[in-house]
Amino acid sequence: MKKIAVFTSGGDAPGMNACIRAVVRTGIYHQIEVMGILNGYEGMIDNAFVSMNEKSVSNIIQRGGTILKTARSQRFLQPEGRKKAIENLKAHQIEGIVAIGGDGTFRGALALSEQCHIPVIGCPGTIDNDLVGTDFTIGYDTAINTVIEAVDKIRDTAESHNRLFVVEVMGRDAGLIALRSGIGAGAEAILIPELKSDMNEMLDKLEKGRKDKSSKIILVAEGDESGGAYKVMDAIKQKFGSTYDIRVSVLGHIQRGGSPSCIERVNASRMGHAAVKALLQGRSNVMVGIINGCITHTPFEKAVKHIVEIKADLKELAEILSI
Ligand code: F6P
């Protein structure tokens, strides 16, 4: 293998730069030329290919976002868009691709493989941690640390004013950000899409729970079936009238930015390095991941399934510790 390309796609996530850096430097170590593709699949269609060397990835391991930029491409969903992208890949003599992103990125890679035979290896890059085949996706650890830092601050206000806060965090299809940061921030209740009856349980808990707590924090994932933080506030008001002084805080995109944590940088570097090695081993259409500390390879079809298991012990822990 003489020449490979790397790109980021979908929502940006802290640690993507550390992964790009590892891909480029591992490639160079193995005497492979590495090109970056700007703006994800959009850049593949628009011929936005740039040469990369050891220097082009200097001083980026600590930076959030992605130096290669990212996009959610509609054009790549169409066969004509993919045809143009393949022409460009061939013109640049690309023999292997590393795609850093989430489920949309890997679905795109599968569609690409139906029209051409350039091997693609995925690195899981999304703050949502909603991919099968890795314990942690790139961006998740930093995002949950951002959330607990924000919720700790909200807790100060909640305590001072004797308020109940409903805090909404990201996770369109998954509640893992809410669950883990909820435990980390000592939330009184956590609402996630994977657990259907948690809204009623939460209202029940408020009714029967301790009345001497001066603050309460309810963490809700944006994809929860309650419909989000404002709907949760309405439901509490409907049941309890003016018992609680309620405020809503939607954390939004601050969860996607910021300097990656140390774990993130190390995991992202390991995955970028493993992706290049997987190409050299002749693998294709698999996502590298880390399970129990070891590098794994999961077929894209399985990785995108969204059936990330919610560990029963985490749910139980959240319940027991929030009394
Ligand atoms: O990166 C994943 C995610 O954060 C989801 O949790 C969220 O719904 C979505 O991205 C929002 O992304 P954007 O604003 O880029 O469309």
Rounded to an integer in angstroms, the radius of gyration calculated over CA atoms is 21 Å
Q: What is the percentage of strand-forming residues?
A: 15-25%
Q: How would you sum up the major sheet?
A: 7 strands, mixed
Q: Give the strand tally.
A: 11
Order of helices and strands: EHEHEHEHEHEHEHEHEHEEHH
> How many domains?
2
CATH class of the largest domain: Alpha Beta
Walkthrough of the structure:
With 323 residues, this protein is an alpha/beta fold. It has helices spanning 16-29, 40-45, 79-91, 103-115, 140-161, 176-184, 198-208, 229-240, 262-280, 300-303, 312-321, and strands at residues 3-8, 33-37, 49-52, 96-101, 120-124, 164-169, 189-191, 216-221, 246-250, 286-291, 294-299. It is 41% helix and 18% strand. It has a seven-stranded mixed β-sheet, with helices on both faces. Strands 7-8-6-9 form a four-stranded parallel β-sheet, sandwiched between helices. β7, α7 and β8 (216-221) form a beta-alpha-beta unit. α5 packs across α6 and α6 (176-184) packs parallel to α11 (312-321). The radius of gyration is 21 Å and the shape is elongated. The site of 6-O-phosphono-beta-D-fructofuranose (F6P) has 9 residues, from loops.
Summarize the structure.
Helix content is 41%, strand content 18%.
Features of this protein?
single chain; 323 residues; alpha/beta; Rossmann fold; four-stranded parallel sheet
